Amino acid sequence: MAYVDGFILPVPVKNLRAYRRMAQLAGKVWREHGALDYREFVADDVKVGKWTSFPRSVKLKRGETVVFSFIVYKSKAHRNAVNKRVMAEMKKSTMPPDLPFVPGRMAFGGFRTIVQG
Asked: Is residue 34 pLDDT above 70, yes or no?
């Protein structure tokens, strides 16, 4: 069964176009290095919950939206190998000084499949 890295992050609405360009490039890089799938989604029907919710999880502020994304791999070992290659390639390039999202409020982690179908 597949292994997934999942991400949730706040993105200023004014930066969505720049974020999308960055995400398209990232998706290309991850797939070139072996990821099975790479997806990015912007909030459409996401309400602030009483105790917890996607907006609360990233401490969403006025003028921001939530982006949810995931990368699919064959296994955790495959993920580790792909990410090692991606990180080696990223060391060769420079990150833009102004990222189009708020990295300090991003949540992420690796997940193993328990149900498929």
From this structure: yes
SS (H, E, C) 54-98: HHHHCCCCCCEEEEEEEEEECCHHHHHHHHHHHHHHHHHCCCCCC
Number of domains in the chain: 1
In a domain, 34, yes or no: yes
- Quick check: 51 and 87 in contact, CB under 8 A? no
Per residue in 87-108, pLDDT (tens digit) is: 998 877 766 678 899 889 999 9
CATH code of the domain containing 45: 3.30.70.100
Are the CB atoms for 9 and 112 separated by under 8 Å? no
Q: Does the residue 68 lie in any domain?
A: yes
Q: What is the pLDDT of residue 96?
A: 66
